[in-house]
DNA sequence: CTGTAAATGTGAATTATTCTTATTTACGCC
DNA sequence: GGCGTAAATAAGAATAATTCACATTTACAG
């Protein structure tokens, strides 16, 4: 059961954490979440590996929300709602981005398109009630 | 011709700068661009007023590109292409976001939607050639 | 002229992120 | 087992974007 090597334990834990949450956490949040079971993990390791996974295309960045970068372990294209008040990010899995947009964008931008992101910003129900 | 007051001169200049460019500049870029005609403008003023305009809905933020926030003086909804290599942002005015998506998002997210953003990321032609 | 409130300049403070360096770890080889 | 090597990590320093605090300037009313 135990992996025979501990070399990538932190690295794997970071990826696994991201893939098992839909909270779209920041580096700091990943760090805090792993700290309870891995007290000796360091924030640098989290940043380093998030950056690595991002370069490898294993995770995606949502860009910054309120100044801090947020990550998504789900690389299937999907739509996001972002609350500008509390910073919560929710998946809108039921919405779909028309597929032809990608090729249309490639033609219009004269560029090699790597990704497409559709997101809505606003005030979530909770924040609206607590105002 | 000359405005009878100088009180809002910097503030107006910042807004005007944004509204007359399609370069989607950062705070630093706005500052550098205005510095030539307004040598005594300060970076703090640029940040302060960009934040003010953003809150008032007179400009929009595209979020961070390569770690720095970018602004758009054109608040009509439109699609962006962002080069992950050089950070250039181009408008894709020919593309349109289906209008019904907004209300669909409101229903699915149980939230009050304020804005919608569709952007494509990739490598622009110039960067592809210079590699 | 004087009081005021808004707008600004300045530089310090904050904060997210990256970098540097020393340490630890796994693992192959002798 | 002991040793060498290279990858992964921890720790904290360094960097860079952004915000903050406060003194100064400005416009304008009285």
Short overview:
With 131 residues, chain A is of the alpha+beta class. Chain A has helices spanning 9-19, 27-35, 43-56, 100-109, 125-129, and strands spanning 60-65, 68-72, 79-83, 89-92, 112-123. In chain A, strand 1 (60-65) and strand 2 (68-72) form a beta hairpin.
Descriptive overview:
Chain A has 131 residues and is an alpha+beta fold. Chain A has 2 domains: 1-74, Winged helix-like DNA-binding domain superfamily/Winged helix DNA-binding domain (Arc Repressor Mutant, subunit A), CATH 1.10.10; 76-131, 2-Layer Sandwich (Dna Ligase, domain 1), CATH 3.30.1490. Chain A contains 5 helices and 5 strands, in the order H-H-H-E-E-E-E-H-E-H. A 3-stranded mixed sheet of chain A has the order 4-3-5. The first copy, chain A, has a two-stranded antiparallel sheet with strand order 1-2. In chain A, a hairpin with a 2-residue loop joins strand 1 (60-65) and strand 2 (68-72). In chain A, helix 2 (27-35) packs across helix 3 (43-56). Chain A is globular, with a radius of gyration of 17 Å. The N and C termini of chain A lie far apart (49 Å). Chains A and B meet through strand 3, helix 4 and strand 5 of A and strand 3, helix 4 and strand 5 of B. Chain B binds a DNA duplex (30 and 30 nucleotides) through residues 4-11, 26-28, 40-45, 47-49, 51, 64, 67-69.
């Amino acid at each position: 059961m135990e992996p025979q090597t501990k070399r990538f334990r932190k690295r794997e834990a970071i990826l696994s954490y991201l893939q098992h949450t839909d909270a779209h956490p920041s580096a700091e949040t990943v760090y805090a979440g792993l700290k309870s079971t891995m007290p000796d993990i360091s924030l640098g390791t989290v940043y380093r590996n998030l950056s690595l996974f991002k370069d490898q295309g294993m995770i995606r960045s949502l860009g910054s929300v309120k100044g801090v970068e947020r990550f998504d372990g789900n690389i299937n294209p999907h739509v996001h709602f972002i609350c500008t008040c509390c910073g919560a990010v929710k998946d809108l899995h039921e919405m779909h981005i028309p597929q032809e947009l990608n090729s249309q964008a490639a033609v219009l931008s004269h560029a090699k398109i790597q990704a497409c992101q559709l997101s809505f910003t606003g005030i979530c129900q909770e924040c609206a009630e607590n105002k």
